[in-house]
YifB family Mg chelatase-like AAA ATPase
Amino acid sequence: MSGFGRAACVALQGLAGVGVQIEVHASAGLPRVHIVGLPDRAVQQAQHRTWSAIARMGLSAPQGKTVINLTPASLPKAGTHFDLAMAVAVLRTSGVVPPDDGETALLGELGLDGRLRPVAGTLPLARAAAEAGMTRVVVPTASVDEASLVAGLRVLGAPSLAHAAALLGAELDPEPVEPVTAAPAPQREAAALDLADVVGNRDAVAALEVAAAGAHHLMMVGPPGAGKTMLAMRLPGILPPLEPEQALEVASLRSLAGEPPPATLDVVPPFEQPHHSATAAALIGGGSGTIRPGAAARATHGVLFLDEAPEFPRTVLDMLRQPLESGTITIHRAAGVAAFPARFQLLLAANPCPCGLFGTGDCTCAPQQRRRYFGRLSGPLLDRVDLHVRVDRVAPGLDGDRRTTADASARVAEARARAARRLAGTGWTAMGHVPGPWLRRSLPLDASLLEPLVVAVERGALTMRGMDRAVRVAWTMADLDGADAPTRAHIGRALALRKGIPA
């Protein structure tokens, strides 16, 4: 006896998805299952999970020759989320599940007992299904809240294959089963950190505020215990809250990375702090099978903090140069190409020398050692960092005017609003995102204002890219001061911060 069944699923390429139709043709012949359409090992092994789950329902899977085609056949398929769609397509070959209109995506991994298990990346898979024109999605019960974060998509949860088949119109009365549960999402504490905890270092606090207002990259240099990490961890609290689409993108990246999904969208910008032993795959992303996002992608719309930056391998750090310019990460592997967003703010922290005490009078490092230490940070990478600030240790009992997170975030929000009005219609929302050519063409400044920057370029102390970045910082400072355009003082302060001189 022959039969034909079809079901819809989704394949991911980075954060983007492509609709996949799973076709099953069962016919007489030697018992054999052929899965075609560039499946990976996880998809090939789905046969055993599928046949066992169908047997647990008290039904028989096709006994003859069965061909399972995943189309488009030229697109690599990876992951266990194809299990449910393959099982339903098999059940449709015998008429157990009636055919549908192709607008229902089926996502979930099958256990041998027929229960449905959640999979990493359910949120981006559901987003991709909606973007492919599907109006309904069936997911494991544990993934309902995650998939429901996608607006306009009807989400149905099923604890097992039998329950999923019943939802799709099968005349079954499945027995109650205990659904597989998902791990709870970790609680974030960044929002509770207050800038008022920082004692002294007004220049560093001011630079942090400029970085937040203009989405500028920042490097802090100072001895151990000066407060570099404390400052960095308070940056997300003064950044503007994420827009709904940004929060959904951040949650999708975390879901794809295998992190437990949040019950609701988190509007606090993400904060990623990889260890200096991180590999290129950990920082940028990669993998031999499914390509996963690295820390740089997970920091999208937030902060990527590299503490002890000179301790990172130079080759790994230099991989950040392309995403710092383009805002995207493209990873090429033999199995395919994946692209992830990477519009993050880079924060670098470093000791002034290997012993960390240069500038305090107790340093024992030779000048050659200090040059070699900072030589691990390449010039092209540092040229993309807008602000350089010195963070010094403060004396005990120092207690002056402290800027709170609430005060700083209000100033940042007002500056961002001024920049957004100026950049209306361009697609950019902060001065740190504006390309140099557009800046020079659309927001030209008087030549007399730019004279200090021109002199710095002529002396080799500044590149043309560095000059553009200094001008963008000057615009951000003008926004913080409520000025319509940068003044010579703003240009001077921007140049001083660019060169790491206290302003």
Summary: The longest strand covers residues 16-27. The longest helix spans residues 405-422. The CA atoms of residues 198 and 363 lie 25 Å apart.
